[in-house]
Amino acid sequence: MTEEILNITEAAALQVKEMMKENEEEGSFLRVAVRGGGCSGLSYGMGFAHEKEESDLVFEHFGIQVLVDKNDGLILKGTKIDYKQSLMGGGFTIDNPNAIASCGCGSSFRTAVNAGSPEEC
Question: The domain 2-111: what is its CATH number?
């Protein structure tokens, strides 16, 4: 089940590894989460974690150990995380097939079963 929740591309994994190195976080987990907030109700979070929680699902992509809380797993199922580089810089992109609406700024979303807690932009 955990392999189907997230797909992290090789480009995104390489960027995460570079960020881990720059921040002296080698050996940490990458936590991918969903939080309430944003103008559409839900927003994504990514960061480094040092410990696995009891409710976490753990899987690996391109040598990165990824943590996702079981509750977030339902919202993130099938999500693809990529890293795109352009002349204007680079950034992570998140393609979630469960998102039915997103805000104009692109940082929040909602699903058919979870509206989250919308805020003002």
Answer: 2.60.300.12
